[in-house]
Specification:
14-stranded parallel β-sheet, homotrimer, Pectate Lyase C-like, NosD_dom (chains A, B, C), lyase (chains A, B, C), Pectin_lyas_fold (chains A, B, C), 4 helices, Pectin_lyase_fold/virulence (chains A, B, C), 42 strands, 453 residues, mainly beta
């Protein structure tokens, strides 16, 4: 052992990390608490520890419970691969595959909670501490948490591996916390990837959190946190990035891919930023501000919505129709500035049929400022239906769909709709007079100029 | 030892890292120089080394002096916790706390310099090398530098731990340098966090530098550097991010919280970017461009100024009044585009009394381009005065203040003021004709449209 | 050895990493494949491994061939220093230098491929695997790949070390791949830094890739990738960031410095983002969208073009003249919003002589949206010619040039030129009626207001 505060799960004398890494890590945490028992020794005494998980497969049967500050759990590989493609590939094809499971420093979550026990019960890593101070500087870095399988959802679809449900959570933080870091992780096939309550100065950076029911969820209330430079993509039921009652969040430079019922869903979030992200979705409601979100900035983002091109998932969606708004805003004094929004869909898939899709839908509140957004709406180039394409060809199917722009035609949309309940908004250069629908006696408007004017 | 170029401070045979990690690291550096003495051996010969600091408490009595390139000093934990909350909590409460000090791979700075010796004398890590080439690729990663205490400032306030003064600096780079990296660090209770002179291609990324008198200071002259994805928050006297005579800096995706006399202060800085940041401040002067800053871009940032809600700090501020400008610009050809600015303050706290606060104040120069900034000015919801709230409840106090937007009313402000000394500026869609004050015969203007126009 | 899946190149029993680290790593990969031979054992079985390269100089004679997923190769130092300055410094001066080579965990690429063998033959690291699934989660982190020398290019210039040619590539990925990460690397003096074909969810973050012929090249076709927070700067012949036939790329927060024939060159790229970057170039054609790039967003970037101030490189350029466009756009429905563009050059260096430089040149396509770009064009302050400055003073020469803004005068330019082939574009607030040249009967226009209007 390099130092008394450096642990390696494969070298710890108690427990077998291959069979239950959870028990091993809990033993290590008990050892840390035992060794670092005094609150203040010579201006210190509780520096925490680092626990290393070498590359390998480790089953987790016992939930890890973290109640010490300054604990860093670190691996050497995020280990992401697409389990979704694998589970939608015929067994016959799989026989020729090089590998079928994620890898790296990989934790196989074997917890099978009862739904009644709640999310925390299904968490591989559960952080909770009462009292003061808030638990601080717990770090998760560079390892993989794999929920292995989704389970049947009772819908009768007989499509268990595509339900995005299994009651498992990767990391669940249940009490107020400060200066946590979740970086470089790979999270996959979990119903919830990362759920954090009551965070202050939380960093969720450079992770790969995909093929999870929900990816990143900030709950309770909190402030001054950052979700940046992640690859994220939830299931069709869930949120890619969700926050409620937070202030001062920075959602920046993420590449958020489908499916995801939403790319970003804020509820009662204020004074936060969504900037410089690339969002891709298959459904309306890519960005939702609900429950009076105020004074947020949405700028320099690229939004793309097209239709699911991959056959195994075409039967699913998030249930919203094209009148919901690709972006829906409930709240006041928000800023939507300098975004590019591409909306491309063949008219046959518009819901309700023959509707004119709404891109930005302001449903309530006042004082929102919507300026210099470039909205490009086109009918999609019909793709071949995919039924003759092997499901394993998800990548080429998706990229081909994305690249096939050449001879699309423009689609008639409402670029901005301000509902009657909302007033004193300003809409500038985000569509012409036909495309922007609102009461101009109570909202300010300047249409994008047209040629020849 | 894994390799001759890998050191662990706890395993090095000379010195005791618990008592003086500075002496140990200096011994290691001497060993590196001794072993890597020849400039060019078989196309190499001076690859440097890595020095590992395991989690633990390490006093630093002797200043570390770094004069070799390619030295990486790395720990396993940034170890941040709020010492400010702790030092403002009654001793009686502290008795029940889980821990009271920062942690991780933590260096306790025991240097007590005389003020007359200058900043370098108080630095835990002092980098300096004369001659050619510039010292290159020194890296600091993932450890904690803790200044432990602030000291009385002679003001008679008897509030030593809130002075942000102790003469200590975390990392001080005193000579020209190239391709340095400071990442993942935790810096706390230092009068100066990171001070770098004459940098080229410096990266300061993903750090937690807070509760320091000043956080990041770039001095001398330099270019092409990046300050990104940090959590930063200086004391009420100091700068969160400061630069002078630099070109081509990218300040991006930082979450800068109060207090900080400024969030960003540039002096003579040119052709640099401040984009995609979230800034929160309690005082005017959040962003200051001084001494003829030119051709800089400020875009897609979220600025929020409200009033200090936490009782122990309400007696301090940065001394500026609301006519100074929340952003003050001295210089030419700068661009301020697509920012959201929230300014919320109860009228009783406006200084001078009954003044109309200025948001963007252009004090000199010409050719600045100020467009599509959304300025939201409101009176703050009166909070309870906090005197009955325990000081340890800083988090809930702050978040409650931030979230309490509901029934605020709008505040009359000057959104843009262009002083007479400044001409040929362009102000577009950043306020109406009453809110933008300037000589329109020498500056260009287009007001934000009003409803019904 | 910490664990069976953790390797250290200096401890592996077969081969000598100082003489040929390539052979050692290939032996390790063979061992991994031998040990992890079964596709599915107990829900796992192929977690991959981590290979550690301690700081040191390691020659690479044998190309590393990677065909296993979840392999992480990691060092402890990116080791960048400027070889360009060193090779342009007289030998007499070098005798006094502290060090002359890059360092850190440094690989010296000794492969000398025949040009006829193609790029892959000259790669230090060659990743390729056929069949399914795509190779996943290979990671390169925190080490240095040094091509050592450039070679004579037959031009008769007798300036071999400045040719940016040697047939060497740092990392070459030749087959479809998923969730790769290239982070924290230092790449130098390679004709090609990183070349990746057919990537999905690739992350190229926080690297230092400079003084390479080309830095980052995405080829074939791919999607949903990120190039963020890098320092990048190619040679005058090559691309700093290049992509072809990709969708959903996010190029974010990079600091791209000269020289580079282009800072960003996209060919047939769609629905991608270039946001929040700082670009600096010495030539026209900083950003090129070729071959029908569509629906891309370019926002919140800082572009600076000035003249090469460093004597040894003043004889080179990328061959383009000032009518090419500092940014050239071939494609439809792109968005250029909220960028700052500084163009500063002494009139004597404009090509063709007396031409009016073009800043944004839309050469084909339709529906592009160009709004709120602030274009600052000035004549450069004449610098001393540099002939009396030592070449090693590259840093001070460059920074002095950048900072010398004071008394520049404005330069007459075409801020936006829309060629006849391109229609239905919208140009707003990006220049006045004289500065924006296009057919206003088929394109929409609103000029930046002038003072007194």
């Amino acid at each position: 052992m390099v130092s008394e505060n450096c642990y390696d799960v494969t070298k710890y004398p108690t427990g077998n990390p291959r069979e239950d890494i959870g028990a091993v890590i809990n033993n290590i945490i008990a050892d840390i608490k035992n060794r670092q028992a005094v609150v203040d020794v010579n201006d210190g005494g509780k520096p925490g520890s680092v626990i290393y998980i070498p590359p390998g497969d480790y089953r987790l049967v016992t939930q890890v419970v973290i109640d010490v500050s300054y604990l860093k759990i670190v691996g050497s590989g995020h280990g992401f691969t697409s389990s979704s493609i694998r589970f939608n590939t015929p067994v016959g094809e799989l026989a020729h595959w090089h590998e079928v499971w994620p890898g790296g420093s990989r934790i196989l979550v074997d917890i099978s909670p009862e739904a009644a026990d709640g999310e925390a019960a299904g968490a591989a890593f559960y952080v909770k501490r009462n009292g003061n101070p808030r638990i601080s500087s717990v770090e998760f870095a560079d390892f993989c948490i794999d929920g292995l399988h989704f389970i049947d959802d009772g819908s009768g679809q007989d499509d268990a591996e595509n339900t995005y449900r299994n009651g498992k959570t990767g990391i669940y933080v249940g009490s107020a916390n400060d200066s946590f870091r979740i970086t470089g992780m790979g999270l996959i096939y979990l119903e919830h990837g990362v759920t954090v309550h009551d965070a202050d100065a939380l960093a969720i950076d450079n992770n790969f959190i995909a093929e999870c029911g929900n990816c990143i969820e900030l709950k309770g209330m909190g402030q001054a946190s950052r979700i940046a430079n992640n690859f994220v993509g939830a299931g069709y039921r869930g949120h890619s990035i969700y926050a409620e009652n937070y202030a001062g969040i920075l959602v920046s430079s993420n590449n958020v891919f489908p499916r995801g019922a939403s790319s970003v869903h804020f509820s009662g979030v204020v004074r936060s930023s969504v900037t410089g992200n690339r969002f891709h979705s298959f459904y309306p409601g890519m960005l939702v501000f609900a429950a009076n979100c105020c004074e947020n900035l949405v700028s320099s983002n690229h939004f793309l919505r097209d239709r699911e091109p991959w056959a195994p998932m075409q039967k699913y969606d998030n249930g919203l129709d094209d009148l919901f708004g690709l972006l829906q805003i409930d709240g006041s004094n928000n800023s939507l500035i300098a975004n590019h929004i591409s909306h491309t869909i063949d008219t046959q898939y518009i819901k309700p049929p023959a509707a004119k899709p709404v891109i930005i839908n302001v449903v309530s509140g006042s004082g929102n400022y919507i300026a210099n957004n470039h909205i490009v709406a086109t009918t999609e180039i019909p793709q071949k239906d995919g039924s003759d394409t092997p499901n394993s060809a998800c990548f080429s199917t998706q990229v081909s769909a994305l690249l096939s722009i050449g001879n699309s035609t423009s689609l008639d949309v409402t670029t901005v709709l301000v509902q009657k309940a909302s007033v004193r908004n300003t809409v500038l250069d985000s569509g012409n007079a036909e495309q922007v629908v609102m009461d101009r006696t109570v909202n300010a408007f300047r249409g994008t100029p047209a040629p020849g004017q």
